């Protein structure tokens, strides 16, 4: 059980270094997403091995597994699943707390930085490896003054069983 | 009743100074600076006392300034390099000043100027104020966007200090 603070500080150092390197919030967001994607495509194997959940029957089940099993396993939090769209292809994960952002306060010159964008990439990459194409983005962020952090996930399509996508 | 809270870096420049009412700020800078000299003296006097965090208590220090402008001030100096000093500064003139200081192991100093003519804050209350300050300070340090040595611009720190300023006065 590694120290959560070390993890938080490591992620913080990563984000600030990216900010210094790219000097452009949008670019940093993209890089975080890419990095998350690369983590996700690998993490899914670990997840499936450790959690031994079977194939999900539908997107709702997927949402529950993500919230109750995956987030719990890797971040120690259990977000709630809400705001299902009428078609059942979009939902929100509401995170009361986000261990990545402990102690973090966004300075004013980084107002369009999506600090935890790595998480979006991870979810996208992991689901792609189980043949689901999704779009993931943050719709609310405590760092920007919202009360909660909300991740919006949208199901795009089921992918063909083909060779795994390469790294981005 | 005015209260001032200051955070001073180990190189002895201020990272954060807030005072109420605001126009006293310059005088508080001055006060804090003079108290730093006192602290340095006391620290060197103690020498290698590797005591625990709350040990040494020192007595009175007589002030050189005159704070007639303010109605009763109490400035208590409370320092802990590795230990705690209490320095009570009593103004020989009409008003009493109490300045509390606190020094962390990393030589960052906190100074609280308390103005309480009627209510003298108990030792424990001051200690808990410093503990809170220290905790908020470490949170500020952990913010990846904060560069050590910068002035402290954290909203969380500001709100904690505001809460203490209201409470202490």
Task: Produce a short descriptive summary.
Helix content of chain A is 45%, strand content 17%. Chain A contains four helices and four strands.
Give a written overview of the molecule.
Helix content of chain A is 45%, strand content 17%. Chain A is built from 4 helices and 4 strands; from the N terminus they run H-H-H-E-E-H-E-E. Chain A has helices at residues 4-22, 25-51, 59-75, 117-128, and strands at 80-82, 90-95, 132-140, 149-158. The model of chain A has no long low-confidence stretch (mean pLDDT 90). Chain B has 169 residues and is α+β, with helices and mostly antiparallel strands. Chain A binds chain B through residues 5, 8-9, 11-13, 15-16, 102-107, 110, and chain B through 139-140, 142-146, 153-156.
Give the arrangement of secondary structure elements:
The complex is a heterodimer of chains A (168) and B (169).
Chain A (H helix, E strand, L loop, with lengths): L3 H19 L2 H27 L7 H17 L4 E3 L7 E6 L21 H12 L3 E9 L8 E10 L10
Antiparallel strand pairs in A: 1-2, 2-4, 3-4
Chain B lengths: L2 E6 L5 E7 L4 H22 L13 E2 L14 E4 L5 E5 L8 E6 L5 E6 L8 H20 L12 H14 L1
Parallel strand pairs in B: 3-5
Antiparallel strand pairs in B: 1-2, 1-7, 4-5, 6-7
């Amino acid at each position: 059980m590694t120290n959560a603070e070390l993890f938080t500080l490591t992620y913080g150092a990563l984000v600030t270094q990216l900010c210094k390197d790219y000097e452009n919030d949008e670019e940093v967001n993209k890089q975080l997403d890419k990095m998350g994607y690369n983590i996700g495509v690998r993490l899914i194997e670990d997840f499936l091995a450790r959690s031994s959940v079977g194939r999900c029957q539908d997107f709702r089940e997927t949402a529950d597994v993500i919230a109750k099993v995956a987030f719990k396993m890797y971040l120690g939090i259990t977000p709630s699943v809400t705001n299902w769209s009428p078609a059942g292809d979009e939902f929100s994960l509401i995170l009361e707390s986000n261990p990545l952002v402990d102690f973090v306060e966004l300075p004013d010159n980084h107002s369009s930085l999506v600090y935890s964008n790595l998480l979006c990439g991870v979810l996208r990459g992991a689901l792609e490896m189980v043949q689901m194409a999704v779009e993931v983005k943050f719709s609310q962020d405590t760092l920007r003054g919202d009360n909660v952090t909300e991740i919006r996930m949208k199901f795009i399509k089921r992918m063909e069983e083909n060779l795994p996508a390469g790294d981005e | 009743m005015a209260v001032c809270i200051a955070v001073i870096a180990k190189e002895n420049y201020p990272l954060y100074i807030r005072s109420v009412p605001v126009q006293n700020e310059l005088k508080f800078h001055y006060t804090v600076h003079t108290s730093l000299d006192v602290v340095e003296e006391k620290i060197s006097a103690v020498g290698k006392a590797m005591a625990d965090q709350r040990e040494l208590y020192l007595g009175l220090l007589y002030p050189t300034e005159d704070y007639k402008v303010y109605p009763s001030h109490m400035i208590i100096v409370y320092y802990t390099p590795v230990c705690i000093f209490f320095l009570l500064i009593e103004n020989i003139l009409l008003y009493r000043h109490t300045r509390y200081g606190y020094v962390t192991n990393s030589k960052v100093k906190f100074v609280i100027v308390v103005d309480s003519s009627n209510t003298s804050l108990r030792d424990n209350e001051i200690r808990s104020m410093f503990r809170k300050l220290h905790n908020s300070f470490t949170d500020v340090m952990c913010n990846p966007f904060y560069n050590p040595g910068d002035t402290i611009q954290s909203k969380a720190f500001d709100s904690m200090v505001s809460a203490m300023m209201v409470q202490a006065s």
